[in-house]
């Protein structure tokens, strides 16, 4: 073995491995959440066009796979990202449903839910109140 070589059971190697895995997991969670938000904004645009009667059948057909992918990612983010972030197991299938449940709570989960609603979701919902 060469001097300075790291061994798998070296404490520094284990710590660095753990930290790099944790950083990667957090970064992946942020990326999934960001993509979910982008899909949400896109779907709300489709909803707005539908409500205004300007959504063509072709555009509707193009939007269906986006809606399905968005719902699947919504479920994944709710389970994989919000479970550790909110320190609780999910009772519902979507991020929106979980945020609605916490919206009126007078705790840190309620504050997060209200902030997400005010800054990321409600402005893009055609009704102005997603949460």
Could you explain how this protein is built, in words?
With 131 residues, the chain is an all-alpha fold. The chain has one domain (32-124). Helix content is 70%, strand content 0%. The chain has 5 helices and no strands. It has helices spanning 11-51, 57-80, 82-86, 95-102, 108-121. The longest helix has 41 residues, at 11-51. The protein is globular. The relative contact order is 0.09.
Largest sheet features: none
Task: Write down the secondary-structure element order.
Answer: HHHHH
The total of helices stands at: 5
Distance between the termini: 59 Å
Query: How many β strands by DSSP?
Result: 0
Number of domains: 1
Low-confidence stretches: none
Proportion in β-strands: under 5%
Overall radius of gyration? 20 Å
Main structural class: mainly alpha
Short description:
By secondary structure, the chain is an all-alpha fold. 70% of the residues lie in helices and 0% in strands.
Key terms:
131 residues, mainly alpha, 5 helices, 70% helix
Describe how the helices and strands are arranged.
Blueprint: H1 11-51, H2 57-80, H3 82-86, H4 95-102, H5 108-121
């Amino acid at each position: 073995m060469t001097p300075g070589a790291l061994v798998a059971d070296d404490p520094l190697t284990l710590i660095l491995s753990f930290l790099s895995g944790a950083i990667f997991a957090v970064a992946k969670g942020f990326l999934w959440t960001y993509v979910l938000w982008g899909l949400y904004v896109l779907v709300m645009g489709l909803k707005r066009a539908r409500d205004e009667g300007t959504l063509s059948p072709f555009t509707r057909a193009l939007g269906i796979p986006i809606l399905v992918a968005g719902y699947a990612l919504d479920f994944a983010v709710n389970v994989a990202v919000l479970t550790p972030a909110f320190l609780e197991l999910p009772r519902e299938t979507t991020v929106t449903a979980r945020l609605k449940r916490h919206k009126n709570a007078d705790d840190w989960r309620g504050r997060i839910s209200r902030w997400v609603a005010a800054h990321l979701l409600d402005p893009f919902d055609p009704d102005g109140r997603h949460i």
